[in-house]
């Protein structure tokens, strides 16, 4: 039935698109993020190969990619996916398997290597705050809960991911034990109890640009945020700060949708994107971390200080996407219940 | 007028392309997607041996373990992963249990004891119970979840603690729809009156202002409201400067902001039908009413208003139905307690890859709209013909 559905939709879409050979097509998250990738990766690679390329925007999830796989109308050759989707999609055959022998895994972070994906961008989720608002800078997730010292609203990303973790950390759980605790019903209760303490002050964001906006205009006193968004706002002259202590980080990866027409070229692109030179360019445009450890040597020291790398990551927690693959359905129902009451 | 045979044929031919388009790209996909709410084809086909065991109503025994391992052993890895993801929608932890067991299916000895020593979770009843319930080609688990119901071990229907979340969100969606429809009519009616009765220049200006909003992207309009309503936004700034309030009012990320923004977005849909109806009322009628002795208020209530109610119903009804499908606006200006059902449908569809659940919620929304329309429409069918306008 779904095949019929997707087929009819694709018929409607495909009437104009056709199935002719097309340029190498990248799909990523738009905005500053994709601008940075275009400058550091897409353009240099296209110039090197003497080809032209096309781009599209991707909003996360596997729905688009599954529809492409079922109808055979694969419109992307490379897509930047979150790890949770990479793991699920790879298991279900929605992505091509990568030939790591050819791609060169030597200097990559071990977490960057996946049978279907090459980790490329390290993103940290931590506390953003307005330097003009509070008397002193917050230091920890426990400060996020301190409504006396830092009165005002608090922003968090909508949904349970990463928020359950940080609630436990604020409650005194060591980062190394977070997922052990969260795997038990008592641990989930504990996280919700902790969130209850500040619930009247919480408001939730969907898009990464929102917390920057809220912080700049004083709508919230603190908000969880992605480090790159805060850094870019600081570069634009906004008085914002970011707390690295116990940040939670994830990794976005390049993956090739199954049966992508330009599969070979896409593999060559991943090999290129894994090398230090273009990776060292990328954070100049948006300050996210990269997967090749040698890339850091090519960066200016003051740039490195603002990246999810080195000392900034000493107390960080790597988001466990395998845990979330198992528990997301259940915890998100409870989260929605909790959030709407 | 009597039509010739050729004329009827021509009409039919003219109707054919849009009809084909309607059936092909709207009706068929919609029906197919509606089917996704009960379709369990994937799980129903992948475990034939286990399904035979489940049909026999035998207890969890060695035969069940052997059937499960045999089924898992012949599945391709992608098929196994897809089945695991779907089972995980029913029981948390099922995904990794199926994946690890499936990967080792050939190495686990026959029998329940061997399976349980491989992974102790196979001693938990909930996994076996879930398997038993989900091996038919048709499933009601999405509708049960949408309605907050569950199955008890003896096969009865039970209420799930806190499971009525989607019903509550449904109710909230309808309430917001009503609030917005009422507000657009209240604001739109006088505006429409002004448009119809103003001089040509003023009419052009007002209608232009209304249509300008109509042509602007919904995202831009919603973002404009964020700028206006936020804590340190224009409105709060003005109120504070005038000394009317001591602290900024909470105007956004709550129900107020949501209703205001949706009302603004949908206002043209209420105004235009009302304008259309008002234009058809001859001014002479009002003069006649006045000359027969009715005052301005009585003239309005007894002559003018009844003739415009059709426009009000069309405008308000259109706004109500359109408002039910909103999700971008509440996501940007609402709080967690103001998200509407469409937000969750999109979430299941795009993020959670659970099209069955998205479809079940979509059908629920459609049924609610149909019920509301029926409440409004059915009494009209039975109304005395004299009460209906010609």
Automatic annotation (TrEMBL), chain B:
What InterPro entries does UniProt report for this protein, alphabetically? MetI-like (IPR000515), MetI-like_sf (IPR035906)
Q: What stretches pass through the bilayer?
A: 174-196, 202-220, 256-277, 312-333, 353-378
Q: Which Gene3D superfamilies match?
A: MetI-like
What superkingdom heads the lineage?
Answer: Bacteria
Q: Name one GO cellular component term.
A: plasma membrane
Biological process per Gene Ontology, one example term: transmembrane transport
Compartments, record wording: Cell membrane
Presence of keyword Secreted: no
The UniProt entry lists membrane topology as:
Multi-pass membrane protein
Q: Which UniProt keywords apply?
A: Cell membrane, Membrane, Transmembrane, Transmembrane helix, Transport
Where the record annotates domain ABC transmembrane type-1, the positions are: 170-376
Is the keyword Cell wall biogenesis/degradation assigned to this protein? no
Instruction: Give the UniProt family note.
Output: Belongs to the binding-protein-dependent transport system permease family. CysTW subfamily.
Name of the molecule in the record: ABC transmembrane type-1 domain-containing protein
Provide the species name.
Zavarzinia aquatilis
């Amino acid at each position: 039935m779904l095949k019929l559905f997707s087929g009819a939709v694709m018929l409607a879409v495909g009437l104009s698109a056709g199935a002719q050979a097309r340029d190498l097509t990248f799909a990523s998250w738009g905005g500053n993020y994709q601008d940075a990738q275009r400058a550091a990766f897409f353009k240099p690679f296209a110039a090197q190969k003497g080809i032209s390329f096309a781009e599209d925007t991707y909003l996360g999830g596997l729905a688009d990619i599954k529809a492409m796989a079922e109808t055979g109308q694969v419109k992307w050759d490379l897509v930047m996916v979150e790890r949770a989707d990479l793991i699920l999609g790879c298991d279900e055959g929605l992505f091509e398997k990568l030939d790591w022998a050819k791609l060169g895994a030597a200097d990559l972070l071990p977490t960057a290597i996946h049978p279907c994906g090459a980790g490329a961008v390290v993103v940290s989720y931590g506390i953003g705050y307005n330097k003009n608002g509070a008397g002193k800078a917050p230091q920890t997730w426990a400060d996020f809960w301190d409504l006396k010292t830092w009165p005002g609203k608090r922003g968090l990303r909508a949904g349970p991911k990463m928020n359950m973790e940080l609630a436990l950390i604020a409650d005194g759980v060591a980062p190394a034990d977070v997922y052990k605790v969260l795997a038990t019903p008592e641990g989930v209760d504990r996280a919700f109890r902790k969130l209850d303490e500040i619930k009247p002050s919480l408001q939730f964001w969907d898009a990464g640009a929102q917390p920057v906006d809220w912080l700049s205009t004083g709508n919230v006193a603190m908000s969880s945020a992605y480090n790159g968004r805060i850094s870019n706002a600081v570069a634009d002259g906004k008085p914002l700060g970011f707390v690295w202590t116990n940040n939670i980080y994830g990794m976005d990866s390049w993956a090739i949708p199954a049966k992508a027409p330009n599969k070979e070229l896409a593999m060559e692109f991943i090999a290129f994107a894994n090398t230090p030179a273009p990776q060292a360019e990328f954070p100049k445009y948006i300050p996210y971390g990269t997967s090749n450890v040698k890339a850091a040597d090519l960066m200016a020291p003051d740039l490195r200080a603002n990246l999810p790398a080195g000392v900034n990551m000493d107390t960080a927690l790597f988001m466990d996407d395998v845990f979330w693959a198992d528990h997301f359905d259940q915890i998100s129902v409870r989260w929605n219940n909790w959030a709407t009451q | 007028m009597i039509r010739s045979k050729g004329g009827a044929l021509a009409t039919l031919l003219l109707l054919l392309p849009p009809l084909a388009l309607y059936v092909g790209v709207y009706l068929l996909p919609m029906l197919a997607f509606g089917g996704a709410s009960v379709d369990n084809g994937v799980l129903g086909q992948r475990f034939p041996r286990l399904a035979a065991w489940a049909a026999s109503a035998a207890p969890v025994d060695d035969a069940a373990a052997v059937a499960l391992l045999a089924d898992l052993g012949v599945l391709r890895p992608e098929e196994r992963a897809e089945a695991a993801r779907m089972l995980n929608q029913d029981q948390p932890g099922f995904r990794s249990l199926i994946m690890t067991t499936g990967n080792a299916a050939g190495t686990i000895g026959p029998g329940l004891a061997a399976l349980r020593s491989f992974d102790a979770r196979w001693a938990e009843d909930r996994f076996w119970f879930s398997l038993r319930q989900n091996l038919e080609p048709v499933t009601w688990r999405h509708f049960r979840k949408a309605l907050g119901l569950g199955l008890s071990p003896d096969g009865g229907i039970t209420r799930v603690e806190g499971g009525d979340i989607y019903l509550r969100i449904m109710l909230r969606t309808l309430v917001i729809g009503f609030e917005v429809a009422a507000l657009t009519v209240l604001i739109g009616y006088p505006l429409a009156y002004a448009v119809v009765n103003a001089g040509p220049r003023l009419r052009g200006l007002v209608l232009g202002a209304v249509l300008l909003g109509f042509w602007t992207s919904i995202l831009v309009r919603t973002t404009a409201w964020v700028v206006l309503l936020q804590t340190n936004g224009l409105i709060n700034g003005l109120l504070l400067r005038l000394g009317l309030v001591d602290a900024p009012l909470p105007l956004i990320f709550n129900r107020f902001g949501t209703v205001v923004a949706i009302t603004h977005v949908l206002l043209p849909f209420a105004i235009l039908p009302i304008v259309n109806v008002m234009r058809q009322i001859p001014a002479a009628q009002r003069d006649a009413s006045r000359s027969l002795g009715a005052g301005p208020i009585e003239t309005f209530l007894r002559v003018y208003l009844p003739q415009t109610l059709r426009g009000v119903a069309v405008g308000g009804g259109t706004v109500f139905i359109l408002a039910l499908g909103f999700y971008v606006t509440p996501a940007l200006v609402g709080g967690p307690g103001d998200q509407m059902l469409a937000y969750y449908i999109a979430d299941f569809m795009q993020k959670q890859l659970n099209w069955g659940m998205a479809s079940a919620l979509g059908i629920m929304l459609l049924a609610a709209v149909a019920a509301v329309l029926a409440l409004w429409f059915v009494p009209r069918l039975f109304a005395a013909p004299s009460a209906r306008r010609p």
